[in-house]
């Protein structure tokens, strides 16, 4: 994505709290993810979890990076990663990866913001950025994500029973919805007879926040060792600002033997003779 296009989209997010990137996902990747999701849902016997937040007719899978390496291509995708890097910072980390396969009969999820647990007063800087990838068409009828435009500027979180207008983020397969973490949104109701809506949420957060999904226990050490540097760093196996997240003064990556994210804490403050700078 060129700089001018990125700037235009960032301004839209500043104004509305979201934007949609059309034709962001390559067709080969769309087909690969569809096939991978179908196989995993069968192998893992995935069924709806039966609650309002996760859905009564929605098949969900979490911690996707540990389930299949096909998903590794999403968090660092060149058409998507620049958004959290600009809206958060370039040392943001991955908060979670979730497959949301909304089936016929699903009900309206209920409005929420993804950084709603943050106790800093609203409106505020984004603490999270959510990207929702469309691997099938998102329509008003099949459960397209519902959005309240401009809600990232509201001074409160959605209240129980609060009535407010929301719109469907309709988009074609291959598009990606980018959300400021403070924007009110939710999964829509699927009123169709046989149309399943397949989306994947890739969430990022500030590097100093706790991730929604634990990356350390969901990834095998061999997977971490095989990861490209940027992906391993996004998962939290490097150090935030060269300091935060260390294990006995070194990055979790060094602890695991993952050379791509082998770092020493406070390295920038060390001199050649090993004496710390004042």
From TrEMBL:
Q: Which InterPro entries match?
A: Phytyl_CoA_dOase-like
| Family annotation (SUPFAM superfamilies) | Clavaminate synthase-like
GO MF term (any one): metal ion binding
State what protein this is by name: Phytanoyl-CoA dioxygenase
